[in-house]
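Q: I have two molecules that I believe assemble together. Could you output structure tokens for the complex as a whole instead of separate predictions?
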Amino acid sequence: MAKERKGIEVSLAIAEAVGQADCDLISAYPITPQTHIVEHLSEMVADAHLDAEFVPVESEHSAMSVCCGAAAVGARTFTSTSSQGLALMAEIFFIASAMRLPVVMALANRSLSAPLSIWNDHSDTMMVRDGGWIHVFVENGQEAYDHVFWAFRVAEDPAVRLPVALNIDGFIMTHMIEPVDFEDDELIKRYIPEFRMEKPLHPDNPVSMGCFAMPEIYSEAQMTRERALVDSYATCVKAWEEWAAVTGRQYHPVETYRADDAEYCIVTMGSLGETAMAAVDELREQGEKVGVIKIRLWRPFPFDDLYRAAAGKHTLIVLDRAISFGGPGGPVALELRSALCNSPQAPVVVNYVAGLASRDVTVEDFKAIILGGKAKSAEGDVAGFTFYGLRG
Amino acid sequence: MARPMDEIRWQDLEIGAAVSEHGSSSEYKTGTWRSLRPVVDKDQCIRCGVCWLYCPDVAIKQSEDGYFEADLEYCKGCGICARECPVGCISVVIEEF
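A: Yes, here they are, computed for all two components at once.
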């Protein structure tokens, strides 16, 4: 494929990117809203546009198991799922990171049942927050396309060797037709070196993976996971810099918009960041000193980037798209409160939960949330969270 | 020979806690789990090896005289050998450590 701008459904752009990345194996089970991604990949394989194994399976549990087996022999491996599929996959999800298998997954974020919902929020990904994977969130089709390559580049780096979840908002992104700048195959080939597994499963050099561990060694094994994920930060940033050098599109672990002199910042993850920017533009016209902080890298959590972005802010208004039931609020606010609680002059954190199951969060809603958060901060009403737009 | 587990630091582990040194499970001494101990009556034993075949922990060894005996470093005392012995020459007794 040559460098070209196309109007394309984001799911298809992701599938095309997986093809350009010369993926060796795709295994998946169809589930809304992820389906178009693997459907298109199966067509690409069937039409011989992509020389890969496409393994249709009977469940997501098997999809991730197949991916783990393939990655263990050194294959470049991709899958995609959503919501209930991720829940069914969860057992192997944790094993993939523990065994340091660089599977790349497009996670088309969708609400968890019940009640049954096919729409978008972050409850599925938050369920596996502690699964030891690298998690990145993207905001539009271009970012989704770019991050497929970034995900393979980071996951397979010998210094990292971890699975990567590429979080894309279901429907809001997966089913949109957007302009996407495609890069040419040669550039992609240079950006992602061939995957060379240090010690693959091979009969010539037998190795046991996923062994039993006694209490004497389990903690040490978990420490290697923790350190690998924390240390992967450097490669995440390096891979973004390398991407910027060849495409001009630069990404950061935490990104800000009109935040330099802002006193109040709305914090978002994923596609709602663009709506938040529009709301901030309107509030700026009314003289409000507001900005946006967007968290792109969720795991490993970019503490220092957050501290820099939050420095000097009076209040952070965190928009969560999931609930930690019975806990202190949404997962993002929980994380920020924990990260900031011991820093001097830490900003106040006010938490709203909104946009569950794709309920619209419009520019007007964002303005109400930002101004509402400002008022709550002034009143000292900052504990827990507020369910925005809830009837009753 | 594999190192004992309690001497391994986290930095010593292979990527993904994989194990490329074979036989490390021999360092895992399961004999302390035992509450029952198999005892072989050699007068009755026909040295058929059925106990050796059935032992789920490969803890039964054949000695030079052809008789079979449990390696008590690994034998968990499950009693399968006693149950399967065709001549009933293995009894289980309460283990006292």
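A: One point stands out. The helical segments of chain B are 50-54, 80-84.
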